[in-house]
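Researcher: Please translate sequence to structure tokens.
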Amino acid sequence: MHDSPAKDSARTPGGAACFRDVPMKLLAKFSLIFTIVFGLGLAGAGYVFYDMLQRNAREQVVYQAHLMMDSAMATRKYTTARIKPALAANHDGIFRPESVPAFAATEIFEGLRANYPSYSYKEATLNPTNLRDRATDWEADLIQKFRNDPKTREITGERDTPTGRSLYLARPIRVDAACLECHSTAAAAPAALVARYGSDNGFGWQPNEVAGASIVSVPLANASESADSAFRTIMVWIVVVFLAAVLVVNAVVYLLVVRPIRRIATVADGLSVGNTDAGDFPPASGPELTALTRSFNRMRTSLEKAMKLLEPT
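Model: Translation complete:
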């Protein structure tokens, strides 16, 4: 004769406790799955946010570079239209570099560098009159690119500098009629200019050729650090919101699901060992748990009737 299920359950050490622990294990598994899904989502979101913030930071630096370049070009135009004619009207034969658009733009920018030393502006040329404007190797490469492709109007790139990573914006300097007044030949140039700078450099320029490049350099470090700081703040808040969500969800699941199921499991454990005085299954909130409770109560009623039928008369 086979033992009854009630006896089998009674013989199983810790069987009742294990059954009551099932809801908690389910809650732990739910939290683990939720954490894994969130972790994967956080990694993907972090990658997207970081890339987006860094791109926005670079776009801001590019905007700054364009603003500085346009300011330098505005200075050149003003010098050509106003300063140069005013100084030339004196007819004193003295060469004044302030009348040279490139010199004026560079000097004004040097004043800006007093407060922003990482920013720079240079009118780099391969054969300058003023040797401070002579192009370095990387600047000469940019000039050569403009020469190789006359349709190129602007070049943007990044390079390492002693003060950190920097973004540069370059535009070609094309020789026009105004340039040839001073840079065609030493004999044709103003005598005061030749006396100041000599006759060895800055001559032989040809019409419409690319003689140099206007180059603005803007540091990337500040914008990049701001993007990193914003990224860290966003990620911290996402993690905080996630932890709060996990706590709230776990509390709701425990109150609405785990605790009612554990109460049901306690009564079911008592009935499984033949304790008919275990009490009724407690009412539960929610249609699913309410239906489960009703099913257990019907099962209990059926079990009690079956046990009474087995009692000896």
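Researcher: Any highlights?
Model: The radius of gyration is 42 Å.
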